[in-house]
Specification:
Seed_Storage-Functional; Jelly Rolls; alpha+beta; binds 2-acetamido-2-deoxy-beta-D-glucopyranose; RmlC-like_jellyroll; elongated; 26 strands; RmlC_Cupin_sf; signal; six-stranded antiparallel β-sheet; 12 helices; seven-stranded antiparallel β-sheet; 2 domains
């Protein structure tokens, strides 16, 4: 099939998929309404600023016996330059997230467990083994599957979902390639006659093919479960799986008709030599990079487009911070990017201030919470005194972030001349010198000695104090 024809068909499929997608959305919407987050945190307090920076609303978009996917939506709005949604995928041992493509691009981060991720990368089908700490991108429109081959281990993936190329139908839209009634294949929207002649198979064969898959988008593949084409595919060794797909594409295998639609989507180039020539990126392990900053109170690491090139294409950066109990990240701001954070372990507080110098948010967060901080907004993260505080996240730029610290030994204040600074604060030079030199540590600061944090929080007020 020529490239032009493939493209035309793809365009056609996409158009029609809209219809299917809308139907699917209706059903999804209803399910969503029913499942709208169980934890009764939504109604609490009604503090609008917190709603703004803490992304508490999570929606379960997929739930099957074999796994689930929750999405925390970005709220949109004027101060968000590039909204990212955050997805949480959980897959039971020996399960498969069946082949699909999305209208959004993803960056996967393996939180726990191991995965095999198959992905069509620039016309090549590749499979990558991901383990804990690995990062791997999936471009919008690329067909992919996720396999949890482990026999005893759940797989947890956190991903960024960048909807900038999306159709704006919903948070994001999945198009399932295989499948049947649940999830509905994108092909299901065509009239049977159209497909029958497109595939050159009988209508009955076609109907059978498009109604097999009913277990939902995440399926069990353990031998104990009813065998399906996914089970068969999953049980193969990697080379055999790729080989099998290749043979299917070439029509050497019995089930070729079941698979021939893969080529219809232009997923494989016709040139056999190219098919598995592997130029796709490797994954990147964030735990392997040595911290950009480390002291007695914690460490932080950032991965940008110069460390891992695929991030450049996605315009996204990644970071990981580990604070010891009681420590804090000094107040700082990101001049180049907004930041999304996900608490991986422990608990702490996030303080964000508005540009006009009023407190925007000061709230406790714990494992699984998602927060975001707009570009230019000053903020800090504080670990609770009882445990280390570990958080991971995405930034909306793949350039080196260069956060500007407002407090600490490396703060912006140290770059000004003392007389000007003294004038700006309206105090004597001696006083300002003592003031900004009092903190010897930079970036990650130790806990203030003693004191209960809640009491302290309530009592600190910045008010005009006459200079003595
Ligand atoms: C359709 O299938 C028949 C046999 O089943 C074959 O003779 C015919 O060439 C096929 N047509 C196309 C366009 O592939
Ligand atoms: C974070 O730091 C704590 C100690 O403060 C340590 O136990 C934990 O393993 C660290 N986490 C990572 C991912 O290194
Ligand atoms: C500061 O800015 C925030 C957000 O724009 C606003 O809600 C708040 O009322 C402002 N406060 C003052 C004192 O101007």
């Amino acid at each position: 099939m020529g490239k032009g024809v493939t493209f035309l068909l793809l365009a056609l499929v996409l158009c029609h998929a809209l219809t299917v997608a809308t139907g699917y959305k209706g059903e999804k919407q209803r399910r969503k309404e029913r499942e709208r987050e169980e934890s009764g945190e939504e109604g609490e307090g009604g503090r609008r600023a917190e709603d703004m920076f803490l992304m508490r609303r999570s929606t379960r978009v997929i739930r099957t016996d074999a796994g689930e996917m929750r999405v925390v939506r970005s709220l949109g709005g004027r101060i968000i330059e590039k909204p990212l949604h955050i997805g949480f995928i959980t897959m039971e041992p020996q399960s498969l997230f069946i082949p699909q493509y999305l209208d959004s691009s993803l960056i996967l981060f393996v939180r726990t467990g191991e995965a095999r991720v198959g992905c069509i990368y620039k016309d090549e089908m590749v499979e990558r083994r991901l383990k804990i700490g690995d990062v791997f991108p999936i471009p919008a429109g690329s067909t992919f599957y996720i396999l949890n081959p482990g026999e005893g281990q759940r797989l947890h993936i956190i991903c960024s979902i960048d909807p900038s190329e999306s159709l704006n139908l919903d948070t994001f839209q999945s198009f399932f390639i295989g499948g049947g009634t649940y999830p509905a294949s994108v092909l299901a929207g065509f009239s049977p006659e159209t497909l029958s002649s497109a595939f050159n198979v009988s209508v009955s064969r076609l109907t059978e093919m498009l109604s097999r898959q009913q277990e939902g988008p995440i399926v069990h593949i353990a031998p104990a479960h009813a065998p399906s084409i996914w089970t068969k595919l999953s049980q193969l060794k990697e080379e055999d799986r790729l080989m099998q797909v290749k043979r299917m594409v070439q029509g050497e295998v019995e089930q070729v008709k079941e698979w021939s639609w893969w080529s219809l989507f232009g997923m494989f180039s016709e040139n056999e030599g190219n098919l598995f020539k592997d130029k796709a990126p490797d994954s990147y392990n964030i735990y392997k990079k040595s911290p950009d900053f480390r002291n007695d109170y914690g460490w932080s690491v950032a991965v940008d487009g110069s460390d891992y090139k695929p991030l450049k294409d996605h315009g996204t950066g990644i970071y990981l911070v580990n604070l010891t109990a009681g420590s804090m990240m000094a107040p700082h701001m990101n001049p180049r990017a907004s930041e999304y954070g996900i608490v991986l372990r422990g608990s702490g507080r996030i303080q964000i201030v508005f540009p006009n110098g009023t407190l925007g948010m000061d709230t406790k967060v714990r494992e699984g919470d998602v927060f975001w901080v707009p570009r230019y907004f000053a903020f800090c993260q504080l670990a609770s005194r009882s445990s280390p505080f570990e958080f991971f996240g995405f930034t909306t730029s793949s350039l080196k972030n260069r956060p500007q610290f407002l407090v600490g030994a490396n703060s912006l204040l140290h770059t000004f001349n003392t007389p000007e600074l003294a004038a700006a604060f309206g105090v004597t030079e001696e006083r300002i010198r003592r003031f900004i030199n009092a903190q010897n540590e930079a970036v990650i600061l130790p806990a203030a000695p003693g004191g209960d944090e809640d009491v302290k929080r309530a009592s600190v007020k910045f008010e005009a104090v006459p200079e003595v």
